[in-house]
Amino acid sequence: MSDYIISQISPSDTRANKQINELLLAEGIRRDANLDYTCGMYDDEMNIIATGSCFGNTLRCMAVSSAHQGEGLMNQIVTHLISVQFERGNTHLFLYTKCNSAKFFGDLGFYEIARIDGQIVFMENRKTGFSAYLERLKKESEQSEVTKRFATDNTPILSEVSSDAQKNLRIAALVMNANPFTLGHQYLVEKAASENDILHLFIVSEDQSLVPFSVRKQLVLEGTAHLNNIIYHESGPYIISNATFPSYFQKDENAVIESHAMLDLTVFTQIAKVLGITRRYVGEEPTSLVTGIYNRIMSEKLPEQGIECIVVPRKTCEDTPISASNVRLALQNGDYDTISKLVPQTTLDYFKSPEAIPVIERIRQQENVIHY
C-alpha cells in the first residue's frame, strides 16, 4: 500500500487540472463535461499520478499513470470515491468502464448491468440492483388497472395469461424527459396509446433537467390523464439520459451518441422482455444530431430483438416542430403567447401558477436553454 496523498481538486487549481487532463489523455480518456467532484493522487514531488471523479451517483474519469500501474493505486482511488459518495448519502453507485477493466471493478464489488463489446461496460455496486428494478416494473404492470382489464378470473395477472392471448396484445413503450411536457409530447403519447392496447410510459427520473423531475412527472400525468391505457414508470438509474452518459471513452461526439444508444438498447431489451413490449415509439427531431443518430440505431437494432421501432414525425406549430427547447426559450423571455401555442393547458396553468416561480427563475438564469 502506497503512502501517496489523495486530495480533492478544486476547479480553480489550474496546475492540478492541467496535470489531470494530461494524465487522462495519456490513458485514452477525455475529461467528461459532467463532473461534480474530482480527486488527485500526488507523488512525493506533488505530481498527480492517479485521478478519479464523480457525477451524481456515478464514478467516472478514473486513471492511473502508466509509470505507476500495478501498484494498487486505482483501488485506492475507487475506495476514496466510494467514501465520498457514501458521505453524500449515495449508496447505490454506478460506473462505466472499458471492457478490459470490467473484471478489475468486479473484484471491487461492482456488477455488470450491460456491455457493448469492444466499447463500454455499465456496472453497479448492487448484485441484485437491476434484477430488483425489473421486478419492480413487473409489479407495477401487474398491479395496474390497465393490465387487469386484459386478465380474467383464472389469470389475474398478465404474466399468467396464455402466450397466444399475450401475442394478440399490442404492448408499446415510450421514454420521455418532458422538460417540460409540450403538445408535441402529448401528440406522441396519444398516437402510441391509440395504436396499442397497453402503453408503458417511462419518465426520465434523473434530476439533471431545468424542470425538476417532480414537476415533469406531474405535467406528464396531467397532460395524459384523458388516456386510459397507460402504465407509468419512473425510469430509475437504468434508462440513461444524455446528461449523465459518459463521453470520456469515445473519440468523438458521434461515437458517444452511438455508444449511448447501443447501451440504452441493451438495457431496454431486457426491460421489454419482462413487460412483453414489442414496439417502441420515438419522436423525430430533424434538427437534432443526437436524436437523428439515436433513432437510426434504434431503427436498425430493435427489430433484431423482435421490437418494432416507430419514428413519429414531430407535431408542428406554424410549420416549426414543437420542442421543449422552444418552450424554455419562451419561458426565459416571458413570452406566454408563444408558450400557449406549444403546450397543453395543464402545462400552461402550471407555469402561470406561483408554484412555478422558482423553476422559471432557474430557466431565466441560464445562458443557453436550447439543447440540440
Question: Which secondary structure elements does this structure contain, and how are they paired or packed?
Answer:
Layout: E1 5-8, H1 14-26, E2 37-42, E3 48-55, E4 58-64, H2 73-88, E5 94-97, H3 102-107, E6 111-116, E7 120-124, H4 129-142, H5 145-148, H6 163-167, E8 171-176, H7 183-194, E9 198-203, H8 213-223, E10 230-234, H9 253-275, E11 279-283, H10 289-301, E12 308-312, E13 316-317, E14 320-321, H11 324-333, H12 336-342, H13 345-351, H14 357-364
Parallel strand pairs: 4-5, 8-9, 8-11, 9-10, 11-12
Antiparallel strand pairs: 1-2, 2-3, 3-4, 5-7, 6-7, 13-14
Task: Offer a quick outline of the entry.
Helices cover 40% and strands 19% of the residues.
Global mean pLDDT: 89
| Helix content estimate | 40-55%
Strand order of the largest sheet: 1-2-3-4-5-7-6
Total helical segments: 14
Would you count the extended β strands for me? 14
Strand content: 15-25%
Radius of gyration: 23 Å
What composes the largest sheet?
A: 7 strands, mixed
Basic shape: globular
Q: For this entry, what is the oligomeric state of its chains? A: single chain
Give the helix/strand class: alpha/beta
How far the N terminus sits from the C terminus, by CA atoms, comes to 46 Å
The secondary-structure element order is EHEEEHEHEEHHHEHEHEHEHEEEHHHH
Enumerate the spans where pLDDT stays under 50 for 5 or more consecutive residues: 153-157
